[in-house]
């Protein structure tokens, strides 16, 4: 007696449900605090694909007890702002306490204003509707391994012999959602420092949407592209470059570490 044939639509639904269950069973990992953070002020540039400087950034870290208060602000040539303030705790691992991220101006077609408090699970975000700010609040079970505002710390503290590291990240589109970041070593490159050659480790960051949406996303062109990060090798690994989108379906920008320069002094006339 022949077995009844499973309709293709039902079979696909069964596969999606199984994949959703598998995806929900993948746990992310806390960021190991191998290299402790201290007070610092760093400078960054944001460049377009053709090499033009589109924004200048300042990264400032301030220590308050066992907490780091970090702020990264990019001022764009067109007046746009990308401003992210992050508070995290450092012990044996880095643990996010709070993150507030604002993107606004001509460079950002859809303004972003998201504030999350991990301890309370409260996520507040603003949406523009009919020219008005619509403030929304949602309470969520936020995982303790959220990496918002700390992506560079993940690659700087990546375990040397690990093949992959997963961590959580909160994104907000129509509503807040936690996705997984799959971070893997992606080879090495040479970088020039003062005319000398140094080795940098390259990492690939893949966004795993998870659930049925994650399975369908690549099929309908909604899978976010991967992000590349580079870390200068050594006893104290240092983030030096990132390449990828700063918002969904945005242009691919390159973020690089930089340093102040002085204009050349005019030559003195001989008497």
Write a brief caption for the model:
The protein has helices at residues 8-24, 151-156, 211-216; strands at residues 31-32, 40-47, 53-64, 67-76, 81-90, 93-104, 112-117, 122-129, 132-139, 165-172, 176-193, 196-208, 227-232, 238-245, 252-258. The chain is mainly beta and 271 residues long.
Provide key terms for this protein:
disordered N terminus; mainly beta; 271 residues; 50% strand; YmcC-like fold
Tell me what you see in this structure:
The protein has a 15-stranded antiparallel sheet that branches. The chain has helices at 8-24, 151-156, 211-216, and strands at 31-32, 40-47, 53-64, 67-76, 81-90, 93-104, 112-117, 122-129, 132-139, 165-172, 176-193, 196-208, 227-232, 238-245, 252-258. A hairpin with a 2-residue loop joins strand 8 and strand 9. It has a single domain (30-258), classed as YmcC-like fold (Beta Barrel). With 271 residues, the chain is mainly beta. The radius of gyration is 22 Å and the shape is globular. Mean pLDDT is 83; it is low at 1-26 and 211-221. The longest helix has 17 residues, at 8-24. The N and C termini lie far apart (111 Å).
């Amino acid at each position: 007696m022949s077995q009844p044939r499973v309709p293709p639509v039902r079979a696909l639904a069964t596969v999606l449900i199984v994949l959703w269950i598998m995806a929900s069973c993948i746990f992310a990992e806390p960021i190991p605090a191998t290299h402790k953070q201290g007070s610092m002020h760093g400078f960054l540039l944001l460049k377009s694909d053709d090499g033009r400087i589109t924004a200048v950034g300042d990264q400032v870290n301030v220590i308050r007890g066992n907490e780091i208060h970090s702020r990264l602000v990019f001022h764009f040539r067109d007046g746009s702002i990308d401003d992210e303030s992050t508070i995290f705790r450092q012990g044996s691992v880095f643990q996010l306490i709070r993150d507030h991220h604002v993107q606004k101006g001509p460079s950002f077609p859809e303004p972003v204003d998201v504030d999350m408090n991990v301890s309370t699970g409260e996520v507040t975000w603003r949406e523009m509707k009919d020219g008005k700010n619509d403030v929304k609040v949602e309470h969520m079970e936020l995982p303790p391994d959220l990496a918002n505002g700390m992506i560079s710390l993940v690659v700087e503290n990546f375990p040397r012999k690990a093949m992959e590291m997963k961590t959580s990240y909160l994104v907000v589109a129509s509503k807040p959602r936690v996705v997984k970041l799959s971070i893997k070593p992606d080879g090495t490159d040479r970088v020039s420092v003062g005319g000398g050659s140094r080795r940098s480790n390259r990492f690939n960051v893949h966004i795993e949407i998870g659930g049925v949406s994650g399975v369908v996303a690549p099929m309908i062109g909604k899978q976010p592209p991967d992000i590349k990060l580079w870390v200068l090798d050594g006893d104290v690994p240092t983030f030096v470059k990132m390449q990828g989108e700063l918002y969904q379906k945005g242009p691919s920008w390159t973020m690089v570490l930089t340093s102040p320069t002085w204009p050349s002094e005019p030559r003195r006339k001989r008497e």
